[in-house]
Amino acid sequence: MKQRIRLGLVCLARETFDFKAAEGLYTAIRAEVEGLEAVDWEIVPDLVISPDDARRAGEGFAGARVDALVCISGTFHLGHLALEMYKICKVPLLLWGLDELPYNGGKIRLNSVCGVNLNASNLYKAGIDQYRVNLGPHIDETWVDAIRVIVALRTAHIGLLGYRAHGFFNLSLDDPSLYAATGVLVDHYELSDVFTCPATAEAIAQREAQLRSIFEVSGVTPAQVAKVAELSARFDAFMANNKLSALAVRCWPEFARDFGISPCAAMSLLQSEGRILACEGDLEGALSMLVHQAIGAETPYLFDFSQVDLAQNFALFWHCGVAPCNLWDGCSVRSLDTYFAGGKGVTADFVLKSGELSIARIDTARGKRRIFLQRARAVPMKKELKGTYLKAVFDRPLREVLDLIVYKGVAHHASVVYGDFVEPLKMAASILGWEIIE
User: Fold this and answer.
1) Positive or negative: CA dihedral 30, 31, 33, 38
2) Residues 124-134: pLDDT tens digits?
3) What is the pLDDT of residues 14-23, one digit of tens each?
């Protein structure tokens, strides 16, 4: 399900042009955009023509707390209008120009694109970069999804359970600077807060039955299956009780020692249900998954670039056994195993399904917020390893991708989802002023 947002809609005009035609076009646009998924609209029904009209519209948008503003140039118009609205309601803008209508008696009827040009120039010269341009009869849904990303970050409640994993310095994060850049608030919890979180016997029993129906469990003991079920129920209750959008977990080295198992299998199960759980205390990894989810991608997960074969031009996306179990390829044996942490690993083991992939990593380095974006394709492979993994082929030479990662210092985790979800993240990063690594 996509992130719900609130957008403002307004149509600007000038009576020296064919504003009656613009009214008709605006009516049709309103009917169309109201069908967009998970968008609440604050609409100014009449054309905005005068600066006073624009001020009243801006006050209405500010009062409705819109997340962004769709500003249609129904015709050419005064340059005051967009600026007056932005002065009151400082949110991202979509400057929308309409196709010109057939000429009538040798006179241009709308001159809409010139209105967009005027607004863009005014905003740019005022130092305002939060605008994007849309031309044609339909709204730019990539921009709509980009606003979903910005809202998902601003409204997120992120938890850090424990700390980052031992030695993973590249996952460290400065909380105040993250808040300044995105609005994200991070709350810290101890591992014991999950270990002791109340969970009913009924919930634990349901989780155990669920695990046994999904996984082949002969490689682990009944006590370990029960422990995974208990942890699944406790994790789920903890995130619900604390109203967490996502949780980054210090999953080793203390977890197996103090709880009795690693959290991998429990995280695989819960992620298949839409919970966002990031390994190794990776907060920006959690945010990368969160923004994928905000634009409609299902069950994002973190992976490592664990192997590159430059000769055959493929990479192995692997992690210890935490990928969402619903992403199983349907061919390999989907099992639980305990191959690390002194027999307390309890991981999910399977090959992931084939299909188109989108990759994203929100990352911070040298005082700059960045996002790493790529497209790839998962292709079939045999189950030859423990953990969860897939074989990926990029739409460009693998050497180029690897060079981007290592010479830009991108962290060793990234979020991957099935489908094409690159462009909205690129546009959101551009609006936020982040560096785009692609």
Assistant:
1) positive
2) 999 999 999 99
3) 999 999 999 9
Alpha-carbon distance 77 to 119, whole Å? Answer: 9
CATH of domain 5-139: 3.40.50.10940
What average pLDDT does range 277-290 have in this prediction? 97
At what angle are helices 201-214 and 222-241 packed, to 10 degrees?
120
Cβ partners under 8 Å of residue 284, min gap 6: 171, 173, 361, 362, 363, 364, 411
- pLDDT at position 343, please? 85
Task: Quote the DSSP letter at residue 275.
Answer: -
Q: Got the DSSP string for 28-89?
A: HHHHHHTTSTTEEEEE--SPB-SHHHHHHHHHHHHHHT-SEEEEEESS---THHHHHHHHHS
Q: Crossing angle, helix 264-271 and helix 222-241, to 10 degrees?
A: 50
Q: Which residue is listed with tokens 């029960």?
A: 226
Note the helical H segments in 252-295: 254-259, 264-271, 283-294
Q: What DSSP state is assigned to residue 277?
A: E
Enter the tokens of residue 155: 């409204």
Q: Does the structural domain 153-437 have CATH classification 3.40.50.2300?
A: no
Contacts (Cβ under 8 Å, ≥6 apart) of 391: 314, 315, 316, 317, 378, 379, 380, 381
Note the pLDDT tens digit of each residue in 165-184.
989 999 998 999 999 999 99
Helix (H, G, I), strand (E, B) or coil at 124: helix
DSSP string, 170-190: GG---HHHHHHHH--EEEEE-
Complete edge-to-edge strand list for the sheet that includes strand 93-97: 39-43, 5-12, 68-73, 93-97, 131-135
Beta bridge partners of 41: 7
**Whole-number Å distance between alpha carbons of 268 and 391:** 19
| Angle at alpha carbon of residue 89, lines to 86 and 92, rounded to 5° | 70
Angle at 223 between CA 218 and CA 229, to 5 degrees: 90
- CB count within 10 Å of CB 232 equals 27
Query: Could you state, in order of their start, the residue ranges of all structural domains in the chain?
Result: 5-139, 153-437
Q: How far apart are CA 27 and CA 116, in angstroms?
A: 19
**Secondary structure (H, E, C), 401-421:** HHHHHHHCCCCCEEEEEECCC
Using a 10 angstrom Cβ sphere, with 0-12 exposed, 13-18 middle and 19 or more buried, the burial of residue 122 is: middle
Distance CA 353, CA 141 (A): 28
Distances (CA, A) of 28 to 3, 25, 35, 283: 25, 5, 12, 43
